[in-house]
Amino acid sequence: MFHTEICDLLGIELPILQGAMQGGGDVALVAAVSNAGGLGVLPTFGGTDKKLREDIAAVREHTSKPFGVNIMPMGPGITERCVSTCVEFGIPVVTTGRADPGAAAVATLKGAGIKVVSVIPTVEHAKRMEDEGVDAVVASGCEAGGHVGSVSTMPLVPQVVDAVSLPVIAAGGIADGRGFVAALALGACGIQMGTRFMATAESGLNSWGRAQLLSMRETDTVVTRAMTGATVRCIRTPEITAYEEAIRGNASDPEVTTLKRAVRSTRNSSYDERRQSAAGQIAGLITSEPTAAELMTEILTDAKRIIGQLPAIAQR
Ligand SMILES: Cc1cc2nc3c(=O)[nH]c(=O)nc-3n(C[C@H](O)[C@H](O)[C@H](O)COP(=O)(O)O)c2cc1C
After folding, report:
1. Which domains does the chain have, with CATH numbers?
2. Ligand 1 centroid – CA 15 distance (Å)
3. What is the pTM of this model?
4. What whole-number distance in Å separates Cα of residue 50 and Cα of residue 174?
5. Which residue among 79, 213, 253, 298 is buried most deeply as judged by most CB within 10 Å?
6. Ligand 1 closest atom vs CA 277
7. pLDDT in tens, 40-99
8. Which residues lie closer than 8 Å to 194 by C-beta, 6 or more apart?
């Protein structure tokens, strides 16, 4: 029932992508999502080429299905290095996040037969990526976890759908069958989820993160530049609150730097500790930790039921 054009384009069975998540899910999650018929995507942000090579090999040990690698063009040489490794390993799909990887990178990937899917926060960015030759875009609203723009999913998706001729995947604030059906109604041909996949059995999230996701309200995230310098939506922690208050109170540069360091120092804390993490506003909806396969089945089963109920709902 939900075999859409994105399935044919990416060689997957279900129109569900797992958004790459630095610190939110690695090899096990990527393989689990791909094995369940969606597209798992490996993060590379902040990692080395050696780690990417090991991760690709490890995913291939656990699945023979297509999976993707994410490129975050944030720093000199990063894009070129990731592109070259993806070409060498014959990765079927590359997703790009946060910024434009550049026409040359897109051309190299496409020349190697790799499908390129770009996450975009505005109509203008979507059009630019279409001009550069990408195969599809993920229209990601500012309720999403991770790097965000300023437009939310509901207005962004239909405007992107109207502006480009590419398949559009919706992201930002989707976690269940209702969100899936809404995305299709807005004109998307699939969804990408991050935050919801973090609360799955395979995500490898530490116990502090799991406890957070299961107890958060929709107001418990904040957009801050403290994490990477760009706007990132993440779990509100005492460190981020202190940083944001200092910025608003016109604190001195050294004071802001100290507070920023405090945020970044919690990014790689050990297993049970508070670990600074991105997360989206949909975290407030999460109350369970299914496997990735169970989650995807539940979403599509619910979506089917909701679509069946729509005629009756319209008559109310
Ligand atoms: C913990 C976390 C880390 C993320 N890291 C990346 C990343 O490295 N690259 C990227 O393109 N997107 C990243 N994202 C964004 C996701 O891939 C996805 O697009 C987003 O989470 C979708 O919105 P949702 O969180 O509302 O589902 C991250 C999101 C989260 C929650």
Report:
1. 5-205+285-315 (3.20.20.70), 210-265 (no CATH)
2. 17
3. 0.96
4. 33
5. 213
6. 1
7. 999 998 889 999 999 999 999 999 999 999 999 888 888 999 999 999 999 999 999 988
8. 18, 19, 20, 21, 24, 144, 145, 146, 171, 278, 280
